[in-house]
Design a protein that fits this description.
eight-stranded mixed beta sheet; alpha/beta
Length: about 375
């Protein structure tokens, strides 16, 4: 404490000063040392931050179980992006699900959503965007983050798994570019088998760099009963980073007329998932029949209820698969996220894409 105070020229006061140690994974004994803060100096408040890659994978070091509170941080959601831009009134309208007000200024929300598609939720990229830095500088930040991830693969992962991890990571854009987005091992390399890449995939999932969305064979409670472990989709953790991975032109995202219909809806599906991943106690799956003729983008279980979800990149409101599922299961109520305004029907609610997060955690509306 004395040394930190001297180095920072800050008077560290018990119960008043928050000590933040960044890049904690760079010192193998950093996390174990927190045990002694808890036991011998509990009057000091300490927070640490660092790459999950390093924190999860330090070998031979004990984790201070019961001495540390773990917080899982995600990229900024669209709502947090609005707050960062000072758009608090628009954020409040979404939280209140005040669709009368929201629909009246829908073009403004669409423009903000375009901005979020480009920046994503990585704090450095959002900060640079708000500061007015060139779009090329923001892309450079995102590319730098992607490069850092791949350097971490080599630094922290088992040496024999690094080539497979890189192969899986680099294949995600082409995997998501397919019509049904299901992960296909054969796209990695000819003759690739599940047993050869399961560890690489799990490594990326455990480190928080990809989201693995399993398939369910039935849309019913509880969803875990119907999980199919052999079929899944893989998504990157952030829509902005995904744009950098595929080199999506900034002008196409920010002002192009086709961004919500191009890329086969990949950006939109990833955006919706990114918002839902931040919701507590939300189990996320997707559904398809064995012949893949009927498929639902997401099926979620939340607060004792199962909801099938369809994601539309445009205002096209045809939902053949969703209607069929709800018709066959009258107890279900469908949810569709699209670029169309809010509307409630007896079998489905259509919610504008910028209202995803608020749909699950916002105040209930009278609509």
């Amino acid at each position: 404490i004395r040394n930190i105070s001297a180095m920072t020229n800050v008077d560290i006061r018990p119960h008043e000063t928050l000590i933040i140690l960044d890049e904690i994974q760079s010192i193998s004994k950093g996390l174990p040392a927190l045990k002694y803060f808890c036991e011998d100096a509990p009057e000091y408040d300490v927070a640490v931050a660092g790459s999950l890659l390093g924190i999860q994978l330090h070998r031979g070091e004990s984790f201070p179980v019961g001495k540390v509170d773990m917080l899982k941080l995600f990229p900024l959601t669209f709502g947090e992006f609005l707050m960062a831009k000072g758009e608090n009134i628009k954020k409040e309208a979404l939280d209140n699900q005040d669709y009368e007000s929201i629909d009246a200024i829908a073009p403004l929300y669409v423009d903000l959503l375009r901005q979020y598609y480009f920046t994503g939720g990585m704090p450095a990229a959002v900060s640079a965007f708000i500061e007015g830095q060139p779009l090329s500088a923001i892309r450079q930040i995102q590319q730098g983050i992607l490069s850092d991830y791949q350097r971490d693969f080599s630094k922290h992962a088992p040496g024999n798994e690094v080539p497979r991890i890189n192969l899986v990571w680099n294949s995600i854009p082409s995997q998501l570019g397919k019509e049904n987005r299901k992960f296909i091992y054969g796209l990695l390399k000819k003759g690739a088998r599940a047993k050869d890449y399961e560890l690489a995939i799990q490594w990326l999932v455990d480190c928080g760099l990809v989201y693995k969305i399993p398939r369910v064979s039935k849309v019913a409670m509880p969803l875990r009963f119907y999980e199919d472990f052999s079929a899944f989709k893989l998504f990157t953790l952030d829509v902005g980073l995904f744009g950098a991975m595929v080199n999506a032109p900034a002008n196409e995202i920010l002002i192009g007329s086709d961004i919500f219909s191009e890329y086969k809806g990949t950006f939109t599906e990833l955006y919706v998932l990114q918002q839902m991943e931040t919701i507590n106690d939300l189990d996320i799956y997707y559904y398809s029949t064995d012949d893949s003729r009927t498929e639902i983008d997401f099926v979620v279980q939340h607060e004792g209820k199962v909801t099938p979800i369809e994601v539309k990149a445009e205002e096209n409101l045809r939902s053949k698969s969703l209607r069929q599922i709800v018709t066959n299961n009258p107890s279900l109520h469908g949810l569709r996220f699209s670029m169309s305004n809010y509307r409630h029907e007896d079998w489905l609610d259509n919610v504008p894409l910028y209202g995803v997060e608020a749909r699950f955690i916002g105040k209930k509306s009278n609509c």
